[in-house]
Specification:
The protein is α/β, with parallel strands linked by helices. It is built from 10 helices and 9 strands. The chain has a single domain, classed as 2-enoyl-CoA Hydratase, Chain A, domain 1, CATH 3.90.226.10. Helix content is 51%, strand content 16%. A 6-stranded mixed β-sheet has the order 1-2-3-5-7-9, sandwiched between helices. Strands 4-6-8 form a 3-stranded parallel β-sheet, covered by helices on one side.
Length: 249
Amino acid sequence: MHFVKVEIGGGIATIALSRGKVNAINQTVVDELRQCLETLAVDRDLKAVVLTGRGKFFSFGFDVTEFLSYTKAEFASYLTAFTNLYTYLFTYPKPVVAALNGHTIAGGCMLALACDYRLMVKGKSRISLNEITFGASVFAGSTEMLRFWMGSAKATDVLFSGSMYSAEEAMELGLVQAISNEDQLIDRARRIAADMASKPAPAFAGIKSLIRKPVADEMMRREDASIDAFVGIWYTDETWANLQKIKIY
């Protein structure tokens, strides 16, 4: 795999996004991450997953520069794959801990929301669903996951403001559950994952399904329409002009 790196030890897989300086998400990243998760899901010796990034970013989100060359149909196809990925991750049968090593923005934040636990590094890093600031929308799935963790009122504030939150602010809001020093982040994430995995696996998976499946069903019921709306807004003149100003490399 080119952009997804996996290390396994002690029954825990650490998956690291590794694409350039900002770990921008494109179709290849989506495909590799989905393939990796599916392989690990059927590995009986694998008990839990830690999802992180390399460098100063967990993920910037979508590779906007690349997508400027896509047709509407190509972009919609990518968005379907991306939203299917976070829905799969949201209902993943094994514990998944997000170790947010740096900035966690837009699509990167959506992947983090799909995990069971978010541990964010202290310091300059920020987490945000900032799509509204450059004239884009979000997806049905991302709004449902945000409400799942924060409730409707706080989710509304996050989405309408597009604010960038520090680790401390994010924990107060409920975007993350804990914060960590950089040098302790992965070790702490692995300990949290190991603790979650110490419970009987069938019970964990069953309870997780009971909690998450109704949410996931609603996500999937509304997702296609939200993708259509997202594409329509993405290609409006104002948003298109804003997208061309975004530099990620």
